[in-house]
Each structure stands twice: as structure tokens, then as C-alpha cells.
From TrEMBL:
This is Uncharacterized protein. It is a multi-pass membrane protein. InterPro entries: LipidA_mod_glycosyltrf_83. GO terms for molecular function: pentosyltransferase activity. PANTHER family: MANNOSYLTRANSFERASE YKCB-RELATED, MEMBRANE PROTEIN. It is found in: Cell membrane. The chain crosses the membrane at residues 64-82, 88-105, 112-129, 135-166, 178-197, 241-259, 271-288, 294-313, 320-339. GO terms for cellular component: plasma membrane. The keyword Cell membrane applies. It comes from Candidatus Woesebacteria bacterium GW2011_GWB1_38_5. One of its GO terms (biological process) is lipopolysaccharide biosynthetic process.
Length: 456
């Protein structure tokens, strides 16, 4: 089978999630309560492993499933407010949006988050549009809002936008509906109580020092550009006449499409989607200026469907031209991304290690710019992280799941041969009393066998 991003080797974060999801559900909840996210994704991945087995296909297939469900609600939202044709265009633009496309094949909680938020927004909009039976709308809203916040903490920023809109609708005369929506949010809060203590611990842990730097205005611009078409920067094809790479052109095609829209046709509706798109982004950027930085692109990708809905709605007669070119550009970028996997080839490396390893050999992860504990565990070549001296690893690398034996400070006595995994340079690997005897390089992934030096 040809390797694509769907079946290529997993990387560290995916490995962490997969190793965690192999545990029982009570263990998953216990471990992840000391990490930085809620448990829903790992519980569903656990169930997927039970029914479909543990593999790259299962891991990516689960994310793709949630991605497709998100697209379904993009269609339902857009067709409900505008038309079925516009709904299909919104699905196409969202599905092919390069940054969003990445996480259709990422074994983490981002597509389940996008699905939860989009479904919550659908039922929220049905409530205030008086579509169908209100009791069904409130039940759907409560269920999917819970789904979203049990998927990722950043869903709360989407709820903040909803709360702002409830206030607007209250003063617009829909007081009863606004009141019932507030009651629904209160019920959501009650049903979230079981996670309040872990949430407090997780927030406190992040406040103690997170790995993200304080974002500036350029970071804000980069994120918005990424969300509007520049999210995949692999294809280096230069577009004729403009002397720009194709991914650099993509957001400008989006801007051109937006300039040709008939914005005045549905101002109030567009304002809601602008709030959905820009609100969480600006809130997290502002929080990151004064408090611990939490501004990170993948945490906010659930805002992309709103941007793509804005892109395809209220079209003028000439809007179709830049819109069609933008979507075609997205497709070209995505196809290249899908067919040219770039993650470190741990599956192939593990095969090499298993073929050359003797029973007495000892494996280590050399902690260069990053360790690969979870990849090596997932592929059956467990190798503890070797740290010389008294340094400690920060929590963000998955210490919640680590065992005491996952970090070592010296090679076991009388070990004749040590195998070292690294994505840095093998020259960095310094093991006193050992010298490099054999190496294997697969792109940026390296493995070295080191034999003990016998002194006379």
C-alpha cells in the first residue's frame, strides 16, 4: 500500500494519545486528569481500538470520522440559513481548507473538538431561528456543547461567543428563548461538574509555566493567514506572474473572494459567523498578552468552518471566479500534502531495530530537541529517555503517562551494546565508555548502535 498521510508513521503526540487510549477507561480518566485536556477523545479512541484494532489506519480513521461529521453540520448550518447549494459550497471549502485538512488525519482531539463546536453552533442557531421543535434543539445543544467541552478546554471560548449572542438576542426581544438558552448552559455547567476539579488542576499546572511564547501581532496575522489558506507550506510551486508560492497566493484569493461578496445581503448572520471565527482567536491572543500564553493555532481550528461559511455566502455574480480558483488552489495543496507524507518513519525504523537487536542490547531515547518515547513504545521498541545530570522534563511532553523507568540517567552496568534513537545529530549522542559502531539514517530520524569500549 502506498504511504500517505493516512497510513504513515505516527508522531509523538499521536503516540501519547494511542498509548493512553490502550488503557482501561478508568485509567484513561485518571491519567489525563493530570495532563492538559479532557478525556472524551481518548475514550472514543479506546473504543475504536477495541473494535478495529490498534493501527495507524484506526487512529487516522477516527479523526477522519469526526472531520466528516463536522462537515455534515457545516452543511446543515449553511443550508438552513442560506441554501443547499451554498451548503455544498461551504462543505467543499471547509473540507479542502489546508489547515483544517491536516487535522482530518491527525490522531489527536482536534477534529472531535471541531465536530463538537460546529454541532453545538448548529443547534444554537436552530434555537434562535425557531427551526423545528425547540425541545429537540435544546437537547441537541446541551449534548453537543458537553461533547465540545469534554473534547478540549478551548471550546469554552466558543461558548463565550454564544453567551454574547444570547445577550444580544435578549435585548432584541427574544427574552424567553434567551432565558431558556441560559438554563441550558446552566445544565451544561452542572453536567461538567465531574471535570471541574481536574480542570482546576490542569489550569493551575498551565499557569505554572506553559511552552508557548507570548504572541505578537505578526503571530496573529500568521494564524489568520494559515486559517484562510496558507496552512500547508510544503508545496514550493511558484505561481507565474506573481512570483509567489502557491500557498502564499491562497489567502489572497480568499481576500479577493471576500471583497466581491454582497456583504449587505445578510449582515446580522454574517456578524454571528465573524464572531465565531474571530472571537476565540482574539480572546486567546489577548489573554496571552497578560497571562500565561495559550495562543496556538491547532487549539482554535474550530473557527475555520465559520470562516469558510462566510467565504461562500452572499455571493455576487463575479464572486464565483475567485472562489473557484481559491478552492482549486486548496485542492492542489491538499493533494500534494496527502501524497507526500513527512512524519518521521518510525515504523520502518522499528523494523530495522527489531532485525538487528540482540536480547542483551539496551535502547535509549536521546533527548535532543525532542524525545520519541511514545513513538518507540507504540512500535514495540521501548526506549527510555536518557538524561544526563539532574535535569527534568517539563510536563508538556507527556509526563502524566510516564513511568519511573521511562527516564534514566545512566546505562545499566555491563551493557555491551546500546541503541540510541534521535531526530538530532548522532554527533550529539555522548555515552561515556561507548563508541558508535553502526548507524541507520532515515531522513531526520537516526539510530546508532554503540558498543562498550574495552580498556586495557
Amino acid at each position: 500500500m502506498k504511504e500517505t498521510v493516512f497510513n504513515e508513521s505516527i508522531w509523538g503526540d499521536e503516540g501519547f494519545s494511542a498509548i493512553l487510549s490502550m488503557k482501561s477507561i478508568p485509567e484513561i480518566i485518571k491519567v489525563i486528569s493530570t495532563d492538559t485536556s479532557p478525556p472524551l477523545y481518548n475514550i472514543t479512541e479506546h473504543l475504536a481500538f477495541q473494535y478495529f484494532g490498534v493501527s495507524e489506519i484506526t487512529i487516522r480513521g477516527l479523526s477522519l470520522f469526526y472531520f466528516l461529521l463536522c462537515l455534515l453540520f457545516v452543511y446543515l448550518i449553511t443550508s438552513m440559513i442560506w441554501s443547499k447549494k451554498t451548503g455544498l459550497l461551504a462543505v467543499l471549502a471547509t473540507a479542502l481548507n489546508p489547515f483544517f485538512f491536516i487535522y482530518a488525519f491527525e490522531g489527536r482531539m482536534y477534529s472531535i473538538l471541531a465536530f463538537g463546536v460546529t454541532a453545538s453552533m448548529y443547534f444554537f442557531l436552530r434555537i434562535f431561528s425557531f427551526k423545528g421543535k425547540q425541545i429537540i434543539n435544546y437537547i441537541g445543544y446541551i449534548l453537543f456543547t458537553l461533547w465540545a467541552i469534554y473534547s478540549h478546554h478551548f471550546a469554552f471560548f466558543a461558548i463565550a461567543i454564544q453567551a454574547l449572542w444570547v445577550i444580544k438576542e435578549f435585548f432584541s426581544g427574544k427574552r424567553r428563548t434567551a432565558g431558556n438558552t441560559v438554563k441550558s448552559l446552566v445544565l451544561v455547567g452542572i453536567l461538567y461538574i465531574p471535570w471541574l476539579v481536574p480542570l482546576y488542576k490542569q489550569v493551575t499546572m498551565v499557569k505554572g509555566g506553559f511552552w508557548l511564547g507570548t504572541p505578537d501581532l505578526n503571530d496573529l496575522k500568521v494564524l489568520i493567514y494559515d486559517y484562510l489558506g496558507q496552512g500547508i507550506k510544503r508545496l514550493g510551486f511558484n505561481v507565474p506572474f506573481v512570483n509567489m508560492k502557491i500557498y502564499e497566493v491562497a489567502p489572497y484569493l480568499v481576500f479577493l473572494t471576500l471583497l466581491t461578496k454582497r456583504w449587505w445581503k445578510s449582515v446580522e448572520k454574517t456578524i454571528f459567523f465573524l464572531l465565531w471565527f474571530l472571537g476565540p482567536i482574539l480572546i486567546t491572543w489577548i489573554i496571552s498578552q497578560k497571562f500565561t500564553s495559550i495562543f496556538f493555532n491547532r487549539y482554535l481550528l474550530y473557527t475555520i468552518p465559520a470562516a469558510m461559511i462566510i467565504l461562500v455566502t452572499s455571493r455576487s455574480k463575479i464572486t464565483f471566479i475567485p472562489l473557484a480558483v481559491a478552492i482549486l488552489t486548496f485542492a492542489i495543496i491538499d493533494i500534494h500534502y496527502f501524497l507526500t507524507p513527512a512524519k518521521l518513519p518510525f515504523r520502518q525504523m522499528s523494523n530495522y531495530v527489531k532485525e538487528t537487536k540482540n536480547e542483551s542490547d539496551f535502547l535509549i531515547n536521546w533527548n535532543s530537541s525532542a524525545h520519541h518515547l511514545w513513538e518507540t513504545k507504540f512500535y514495540g521498541i521501548p526506549a527510555p529517555i536518557y538524561i544526563s545530570g539532574s535535569g527534568e522534563l517539563p510536563y508538556y511532553v507527556g509526563t502524566a503517562l510516564m513511568e519511573e523507568t521511562d527516564i534514566i540517567r545512566e546505562v545499566p552496568v555491563n551493557t555491551e551494546r546500546v541503541g540510541a534513537v534521535t531526530s538530532g545529530s548522532l554527533d550529539e549522542v555522548q555515552l561515556e565508555g561507548y563508541s558508535l559502531s553502526e548507524k541507520k539514517e532515515m531522513g531526520n530520524l537516526k539510530f546508532g548502535w554503540y558498543v562498550r569500549t574495552i580498556e586495557d
